[in-house]
Amino acid sequence: MTEPEATRRDAGVTESARANRGWWDRNADEYQTEHGTFLGDDRFVWGPEGLDEVEAGLLGPPEELSGRDVLEIGAGAAQCARWLAAQGARPVALDLSHRQLQHALRIGGSFPLVCADACALPFADGSFDLACSAYGALPFVADPRLVLREVRRVLRPGGRFVFSVTHPIRWAFPDEPGPEGLSVSGSYFDRTPYVEQDEQGRAVYVEHHRTLGDRVRDVVASGFRLVDLVEPEWPAWNTSEWGGWSPLRGNLIPGTAIFVCERD
Predict the structure, then answer these.
(1) 10 Å Cβ neighbour count for 106?
(2) Domain containing 238: what range?
(3) Which residue intervals define the domain Methyltransferase type in the entry (predicted)?
């Protein structure tokens, strides 16, 4: 099979969803094999730095999660939902990829798994107290406001949505963990999507770039109040590499941005 061509070009909502559903279905096994040990079966990790929700408390104190209805978006194998269930919460794990959710079934858990697009959540208004997404959905959709508005719709008044994405500054640097990844190679302000496409020019993977200001504006325009923006520092204990994330780069530039949003 010919390797896909990496390029920068426009990709809309439908093309992005189709490409990324297929990519995650094809690559879920490899992803869980490669990163499953780091993620654990029932840990809530916000990103490659290893910031753990049990320490961060971005959804609120762990002891206050009991009895709360929580939606995890882009759940993958539902590691975060499994941790939430252990705290007494009532999670629902949603993912676009059927194969990722099969890994959630393999690991096990007594909470619902839902295969659906985050741009059209199959839940009634006001169904959840909290929502979370650790690198799920937001980087892969052409219009993140569609997701944000849907999340606001299904949250109850006062509900909180916390999501993590690749830190926008990372788009100006090569996706390399070593010294070659420390020099700016492109414009931070170039919002053209990163696309991998097959020989017929059909997208098989799409990732979208938003500047930090874009992300803030998206949050506010979708009816949320931004209450915190967390940029995790690379901890001394973490010696692993994950794609372009590494101790070398992590000690110099942020790799993850976590947005803590509340619905009034």
Answers:
(1) 10
(2) 5-263
(3) 71-163
> CA geometry: angle at 117 spanning 49 and 153, to 5°?
90
**What is the residue-wise DSSP string for 65-118?**
-TT-EEEEES-TTTHHHHHHHHTT-EEEEEES-HHHHHHHHHH--SS-EEE--T
For residue 97, which of 46, 31, 193, 192 has the smallest C-alpha distance?
Answer: 31
The residues that bridge with 203 in the sheet, in sequence order, are 197
pLDDT tens column, 228-262: 999 999 999 999 999 999 999 999 999 999 999 99
Residue pair 57/51 in contact (Cβ under 8 Å)? The answer is no
Query: Average pLDDT of the chain?
Result: 97
Domain containing 172 — which CATH number?
3.40.50.150
Total structural domains in the chain? 1
Nearest Cα to Cα of residue 103 among 132, 78, 84, 137: 78
Tokens representing 82 are 């499994």
Confidence of residue 1 (pLDDT cuts 50, 70, 90): low
Which run of H or E residues covers position 5?
A: strand 5-8
pLDDT tens digits for 179-192? 999 999 999 999 99
CA–CA distance, 44 with 76 (Å, rounded to integer): 12
Contact between 13 and 23 (Cβ < 8 Å): no
CB-CB contact of 132 with 70 (8 Å)? yes
The predicted model gives 48-75 an average pLDDT of 97
List the structure tokens of 191.
């919002």
- Tell me what pLDDT residue 44 has: 98
Identify which of 176, 206, 189, 190 has the alpha carbon closest to the alpha carbon of residue 6: 206
Name the pTM for this structure.
Answer: 0.97
